[in-house]
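Entry:
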Amino acid sequence: MLGIQSISSKISRVERHFPPRRKPRTVLLVNPTQESSTPPLDLMKLSTFLRSRGYVPELKRGALKKISIEPWAVVLTCVFSGEIPDLRGAISQIRRLWPHAKTILSGVLPRRFGDKAHGDFGVGVLDEASEVLLDELVADYDLTPDWDASILITSKGVCPRECSHCETAARGKGVTRIIANWRIQLNSKLPRIEVWDNTLMLTPREHLVRVGQALSATEKPVDLVCGLTPNGVEEAELRWRIGQLAWVRLAPARLECNMEEELPRFHRLLAHTRSIFGDNTKYRAFAVVNGAEAPAKASERIQRMRAEGVEVDIVPYTPHYWEERGTYANRESGWTTDDLASFQ
């Protein structure tokens, strides 16, 4: 287990970009992936920060040209590499509509590319120090009135899954930081809880137990969105950790199986999870389709998962590169863009 790092005292870029103001200025927060069903958490926390500094944040999805007042600044977010074409298009549109607005990128993927984005597009990128600062804030749910769940993240680090579409791919695994104020993320007014914590199953045991106890005490349905069974944790340890969550009202209980060779492990962990949560719990599983196996094998894997009575969420992500404008397909393993579309 990696040591837990202390929060840096470095002045972050978000503080430099948005100094305190007495006269309000509008900041447009943009999620360029319009079909996304989940709210942009980083922008929601940024909104809390902006309000505290005297700015007026406004979240926008859809056509930017419908906004009549030029914002003082625009912040765009991006997480997965498949969103790069949407992000590129939104940056170009903002340049045409509001050439004088300060344009800034937030999110996992822009931090990966870093200052290269500034050289390519003339935009700023929020740094890791900004992420550390914003992580400790409460999300601004007023931006997303239709969203019904508290979003909880208790730790940050290198995801154990190492999927090829994500910035943490091939970088090892481990927890780098526990979020100190994770409890304040539980909103008593919202009926559900979603845990967006990639590294929860890698945290110290005592931390996992505390999180499980807090979730159980709410008596609310809890969706561990990132799943119960990441590859980077030994099976014996996962069995113990799943047992510690026995009193949490999981809805659903999520597992995963992202390659054909993982199927035996998936079946074993599914049986163990069912022994803990029973037959009345709904079981779902991720199935990442990332181009590493042939399309026919990916389809067969998904059908074998469904044969266990599990609802499968197909996640059709493939590697993408900042320089490319279209969708990437791994032709070396037999993929085409039509194959990608068939899994969506």
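Confidence is low (pLDDT under 50) at residues 1-8.
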